[in-house]
Every structure is written in C-alpha cells, then in structure tokens.
Amino acid sequence: MMLCPCCGSDMLLGAFDCRCGARFVGEPLGDPAVKLQRFGPAVTAIALLTIVVAAALLFTKFLALAAVLVVWAARKAMRLARRDPENYGGYRTAAATLAVTLTAGAVLGGLAIAGIPKLIRDREAKRTSATFARMSRYYQLIEEYKVQTGSYPLDEATVKRFISESLPRDYWNKAIAYQGRTDSLVGSQTQRTGIPINNFELRSAGPDEKLETDDDIVMIDGIFYTNAEAKKKSVMQRTVNR
User: Fold this and answer.
1) Is 42 in contact with 93 (CB distance < 8 Å)?
2) DSSP per residue, 56-90
3) Residues 90, 42: contact at Cβ < 8 Å?
4) Per DSSP, which regions of 113-239 are E strands?
5) Residue 215, helix vs strand vs coil
6) Is 209 helix (H, G, I), strand (E, B) or coil?
7) d(Cα 7, Cα 23) in Å, to the nearest integer?
8) What confidence score (pLDDT) does residue 30 get?
9) pLDDT at position 96, please?
C-alpha cells in the first residue's frame, strides 16, 4: 500500500489512479544528481551587517547596538554550514561577516562611549541656552518697567503688578529670582524704599535647583555671569562705593 499524493488515502502499490480521481503520469522523481548548497543564511547575515552599518553612520552611532542581530545571524549560518555542509554553504562568508561585525561593533561602541561626555555637555548647553533666553525675556520686562517709572522694580512682587503675563521660569521650571538694588547696596540683601533702583540681578538656581551654588546662572544689569564672577563683581562694587 501507498498513500495518494493528492488526497492522502491508501491505494495499492503500482496503481495508476486513485478513488479521488488523481492519476499518475510518470514515475516519482528521484534524488537530484547534484545538490545545490543554500547560501541564504550567510547572505542574510551580510545584508543585516550592511543595514546596521548604514543606519549607524547615517543616523546615530547608538544603532550599532543592533549588531547583535548580525552576530546571531552569522553564528546561525556558521552552525548550519558546519552541521550540514551538503545543503548549506557560506561558512567562510559567515565567519568573515562575524569577524567584521565584532570589529565594527567594537569601533562604533568605542566611539559612542567616547561621545557620551560631549553629549552631556551639549545637553547642559541646551538647558543653559534655554534659561538664557527666558532670563533675557525677564530682562525685557523690567527694562519696560524702567522706561515707564525711571528705575528698576524694587522686588519681584512689583514686577508681577506691572505685567499681565506670567514671569518667565528657567529650563527646570523653577522661578527666576529677582533682586533690585541701588549702587550703594550692591551685594547687600537689604532693600530700602524711596531710593531709585539703578541695578538688578536675575538668578536661576541652575541644574541642582539650589540658589547660591556654583552652577547658578546669574544676570546682572543685562550681562550674564557665573556665580563666582557675580560674587567677585559684588565685592569689587562694594569696594568702589566705599
């Protein structure tokens, strides 16, 4: 007995037709005289390598992490070629692809790690620039106040009464501290009414969100200073006033 290749039902060996109507038109094909090896797995590994390298170079080096897919595909192609060399070829191609992937991955990974400090600096610069822009808007508001009143506001409450919009905040969404002062009171925390305010200070707490620390962003009379420079300016101004 044998199975009908059409319906799968039993039929006599040597029969020329089946109850389903299927008929044999020739002898079953035997094994091919020459077997062709399959190179699909090796070619797949090469294609993945090309895609990953192109993506890493065109977009971002962090896409080099996708090289793990190439490593997996190349190792799979090598295993198939080693276990069944009659049906699968491309062992050397897959091995070369694996070696290139590991080398390129190490190089791109090193470049990505080396670029982390610059990435952090660029990120901080972006935040600082955003705060500069918002403090500059604050500066415009108090300059408008000075044009109308003849001096800078005494304090933040005075600024709020003058403008209808919300006061600008820094990149970290923290309030920008305002301090108005006279020349004779530069660097002093004391404020007196009845004295025209000729100077002012805007201060952002910076990334640590704490005032009077090294990362503060300070504007004095429209000019940006580091916290250390602002302290030095205040000391020098007090010395001159004396």
Assistant:
1) yes
2) HHHT-GGGGGGHHHHHHHHHHHHHHHHH-TTTB--
3) yes
4) 177-181, 199-204, 217-220, 223-226
5) coil
6) coil
7) 11
8) 66
9) 92
Q: Is the pLDDT of residue 242 over 70?
A: no
Which region, left, alpha or beta, applies to residue 224 given φ > 0 means left and ψ of -120 to 50 means alpha?
beta
> What are the backbone angles phi and psi of residue 148, rounded to the nearest 5°?
-85, -30
Whether the pTM exceeds 0.70: the reply is no
Structure tokens at 99: 């070696």
Instruction: Return left, alpha or beta for 191; rule: phi > 0 is left, psi -120 to 50 is alpha, else beta.
Output: beta
142 to 171, 188, 200: CA distances (angstroms): 20, 20, 9
- pLDDT tens digit sequence for 143-194: 999 998 888 888 888 888 888 778 899 999 999 999 887 654 444 444 445 5
Which tokens is 17 given? 């037709």
Q: Which tokens belong to 124?
A: 């901080």
Q: Which residue has the tokens 């604050």?
A: 138
Instruction: Report pLDDT digits (tens) over 69-122.
Output: 999 999 999 999 998 888 888 899 999 999 988 887 777 677 777 877 887 888
Which amino acid does the sequence have at 194? G
What are 32's two structure tokens? 């091919």
Report the alpha-carbon distance of residue 196 to residue 140 in Å, rounded: 19
**Cα separations in angstroms, 70 against 50, 60, 80, 200, 218:** 9, 18, 15, 61, 51
Question: Per this entry, what is the length of the chain?
Answer: 242
Lookup: tokens for 56: 């890493």
CA distance 151 to 12: 112
- DSSP letter for each residue of 44-57: HHHHHHHHHHHHHH
